[in-house]
Design goal:
Helix content is about 60%, strand content about 15%. It is of the alpha/beta class and about 450 residues long. The longest helix is centred in the N-terminal third of the chain and has 53 residues.
Length: about 450
């Protein structure tokens, strides 16, 4: 594309210069015949401009529709189980067909327009030829002496010189229109949220301590809607902190900022005294464990899944991590123990089993920083208390820093320190008892969670 744009542009400049010289010559030989033969070319220019305006919308449409099909397919494949469970396959199929048809129509429309464009531009050239011969011939016949056969022959020679710039302009502007549509799509992608990358002089995090400091952190996904505002706190190495707050208050976002899935938009996050943006992503993330509400398990055996973060782990280490996550017993109960295949995304396991395997997977890497995002949100009650036990056991042994997002009341009561978020701001930082006494927003939220759990 770049090649053709460049070739088109240099060709265009040559042609335009030649055109101006030749146009001057034909006007000089005979102002009347010259003007009349250049006139159709002016219409050709006008036509090219109108075409450009129309084709812009059509090329944009083709690109956009193609992009939409891509994101549609990606989205629906990820949610294929939901589609199947609601029996919506036929509806999704026809939705896809409709999108494919729209893309087809748009592509055909673009081809059709281009197929009329070039012949019409050539036609203007022939009209110009016709006018030249007609008017020139008529002037010679009329014998006025204003025009000679010699001049007409010269004009015949010039004709191609006048005609070919129009073709070149037509071709170049079509190439430019297509390049522009492609470039706009690229720009859209470039302006999408910036992918976090290593700095050129990024350093390795030694992961010795695991102290986490948020220093006046602001964050927003879109500039217009702040998600975290002026958040400051310090978590000591080996400390266990719970994070609580209403839905949408920014808890998951905050966890995702620590391993730099996103970069802060204001302030800084420092780990062991250094801004996380100065570390290589690999060294920052490897010593961290992240367990969320929904953790992907790969289609392989239990053992393969557990050692995903540390492929060289020995059997006894794997079993120790599984025991710590209260998963060892349930694994042994599976048909083939550690060799049981879990199916794609662990479909052959219950929610509680999946969650405990994810926890064991994280434990196995001995994370210096463990980030837990409501790890018992979709888990049966007996699994829940076992998961809570294993988390609390780790935090008491001080094996690493642990941040746990939760609104489970037994965990909140046992946490020595709770960071309570309301509307993106840190509105309380203390133990459960003192928050109840000093932070009315926390007290209110806590009572709501208490009622929710009783109802369960
Ligand atoms: N990828 C994203 N792009 C744009 N906005 C987002 C994105 N993820 C979250 N948000 C918005 O940021 C805000 C905070 O979301 P976040 O998931 O951090 O809340 P939360 O406290 O974890 O909520 P919950 O308790 O429901 O899990 C919400 O308003 C949400 O709509
Ligand atoms: Mg969340």
């Amino acid at each position: 594309m770049e090649q053709s744009v460049l070739q088109g542009l240099t060709g265009l400049i040559e042609e335009v210069v030649t055109f101006i010289i030749v146009a001057g010559m034909v006007l000089w030989i005979s102002p009347l015949v010259g003007a009349l033969s250049i006139l159709p070319l002016a219409f050709a220019f006008l036509f090219i401009r109108i075409y450009n305006r129309r084709v812009k919308a059509i090329y944009d449409g083709v690109r956009k529709r193609l992009g939409k099909i891509g994101s549609f397919v990606q989205d629906r494949l990820a949610g294929v189980q939901v589609t199947q469970s609601f029996g919506r396959e036929p509806a999704e199929q026809s939705d896809f067909d409709a999108r494919a048809d729209q893309f087809y129509e748009a592509s055909v429309g673009a081809s059709r327009l281009r197929n009329t464009y070039f012949p019409v531009v050539s036609a203007f050239g022939f009209i110009n030829n016709l006018v030249m011969l007609g008017v020139g011939g008529w002037l010679i016949m009329s014998g006025s002496g204003a025009f000679t056969i010699g001049a007409l022959l010269a004009y015949r020679g010039f004709w191609w010189r006048l005609q070919s710039p129009i073709r070149t302009i037509a071709q170049t502007s079509d190439i430019l229109q297509r390049a522009r549509a492609a470039a706009e799509r690229v720009m859209e992608l470039l302006h999408a949220p910036v992918v976090v990358t290593d700095k050129a002089d990024a350093r390795v995090w030694e992961a010795s301590k695991g102290e986490i400091v948020f220093d006046s952190v602001d964050f927003s996904y879109q500039p217009s809607t702040p998600v975290l505002r002026d958040v400051s706190f310090r978590i000591a190495p080996g400390e266990f902190v719970a994070i609580a707050g209403g839905s949408g208050s920014g808890k998951s976002t905050l966890l995702n900022l620590v391993p730099r899935f996103y970069d802060v938009t204001g302030g800084a996050i420092r780990i062991d005294g250094i801004d996380v943006r100065n570390f290589t992503l690999a060294s920052l993330r490897a010593p961290m464990g992240l367990v969320g509400q929904d953790n992907y398990l790969f289609d392989g055996t239990v053992r393969d899944n557990l050692r995903y973060g540390r492929p060289e782990a020995s059997l006894s280490e794997i079993e120790a991590a599984a025991s710590a996550a209260n998963a060892h017993r349930i694994i042994l109960d599976l048909p083939e123990g550690y060799d049981t295949r879990v199916g794609q995304n662990g479909v052959k396991l219950s929610g509680g089993q999946r969650q405990r395997l994810s926890l064991a997977r994280a434990f196995l890497t001995n994370p210096v920083v463990l980030l837990l995002d409501e790890p018992t949100a979709s888990v049966e009650p007996e699994s829940e208390s076992l998961i809570h036990d294993s988390i609390l056991r780790r935090t008491r042994s001080g094996e690493g820093t642990t941040i746990l997002v939760t609104h489970r009341i037994d965990l909140l009561r046992q946490a020595l320190r709770i960071l309570f978020f309301a509307d993106g701001r840190l509105s309380g930082d203390a133990s459960h008892d003192s928050l109840i006494a000093t932070c009315p927003e926390y007290a209110e939220a806590y009572h709501r969670w208490e009622v929710e759990e009783e109802v369960k």
